[in-house]
Write a structure and sequence with these properties.
Order of helices and strands: EEEEEEEEEE
Oligomer: single chain
Number of helices: 0
Distance between the termini: 10 Å
Shape: globular
Radius of gyration: 12 Å
Strand order of the largest sheet: 2-1-10-9-8
Strand content: over 45%
Length: about 80
């Protein structure tokens, strides 16, 4: 799910493929939605993530929280939740 906190609606609800790997010592999470959109998260010093959206690199960095089988990446007005 990709939720817009500012406008209080979902931009996307549906399936996705999550790929986690390391590059240059940094953790990376790629999330590809079934609709073709891809979000790219690169861990930065301090545990925050640089975010690349389909529109380009975001100005805000994301924080990640995990609870059970659910992971949430939160940045600016967006909240991306996946299992």
């Amino acid at each position: 799910k990709l939720y817009n906190n500012k406008s209080d609606n979902y931009r996307y609800e549906g399936g996705c493929k999550v790929t986690k790997y390391k590059t240059g010592g940094n953790k990376v999470i790629d999330i590809a939605f079934v609709n073709g959109e891809t979000y790219h998260f690169v861990e930065q010093p301090g545990g925050r993530y640089k975010v690349q959206t389909p529109e380009g690199w975001a100005d805000s960095k994301a924080t990640m929280t995990e609870s059970g089988d659910k992971t949430v990446l939160d940045w600016y007005k967006w909240e991306l939740t996946f299992k």
